[in-house]
Amino acid sequence: MDEIISHLLDQPIANVVALAGLVFLFVAAVGKISGTIQPDYRGRIVCGVLGAVLLVAGLLVHNTQDSKGPQNTPAPSPPVPKRDPPKRNKCMPGYVQRRAVPDDHVCVTQETRNQMAVDNDLAPSRTRNSGQYGADTCVEGFVWREAVPADHICVTPATRNQAREDNRQAASHVEQ
Fold first, then answer.
1. Is there a domain that residue 147 lies in?
2. 88 occurs within a structural domain
3. Distance in angstroms (rounded) separating the CA atoms of residues 100 and 146
4. CA-to-CA distance for 2 and 23, rounded, in angstroms?
5. pLDDT by residue (tens digit) across 19-71?
6. Which domain, by its residues, includes 154?
7. How many other CB atoms are found less than 10 A from the CB of residue 85?
8. 144 - beta bridge partners?
């Protein structure tokens, strides 16, 4: 039960209000539930009205929040020297293209590329579907990888530092 409550607390308030509305509508429609909830005629009407109001309010708040977008912007990352990664260059022996996104041609070790694939596979288990950054919100202990500016795969801080270091050394890992 504690897990359910903690999960509900992680949800946006609009979702919780809409869910409460659905529960009240269910009670109004069914009436008797396992002998523990037995509203009379007036109670069912009140449940129906309250359920409809909560459901509509939850949906309206949800739509309002969606139209406003994220309220807070992410904390800025420490500045990383701006260097254009080499494009489509051949990697030095011992290095392969990272391919965090299709046009990512930063040369990294095979071990780093393998770790990136594992992190990509584990991404759904490392994100919450709500929070300050919506579906991109990482669970506690994980941060955005940021191999490229739009890379919001959740990884350990050490993996993010590795991606930053790979970006910093990108020019030195290609054949001249």
1. yes
2. no
3. 9
4. 19
5. 888 887 888 888 777 777 778 888 888 888 988 998 888 888 777 765 555 44
6. 96-173
7. 20
8. 154
8 Å CB contact between 24 and 48? yes
Please spell the DSSP secondary structure of 59-99, one letter per residue. HHHHHHHHHH--SSPPPPPPP----PPPSSPPBPTT-EE--
Q: Which amino acid is at 125?
A: S
Residues 116 and 157 in one domain: yes
Question: Looking at the DSSP assignment, which residues form a beta bridge with residue 113?
Answer: none
For 127, the 3-state DSSP assignment is strand
d(CA 2, CA 97): 45
Q: Which amino acid is at 174?
A: V
pTM confidence score = 0.49
Under 8 Å CB-to-CB from 144, ≥6 apart: which residues? Answer: 74, 136, 138, 151, 152, 153, 154, 155, 160
**Could you give the number of structural domains in the chain?**
2
Same domain, 55 and 112: no
Distance CA 125, CA 139 (A): 8
Report the distance separating Cα 64 and Cα 131, nearest Å: 16
**Does 73 reside within a domain?**
no
Domain boundary among 68, 84, 118: 68
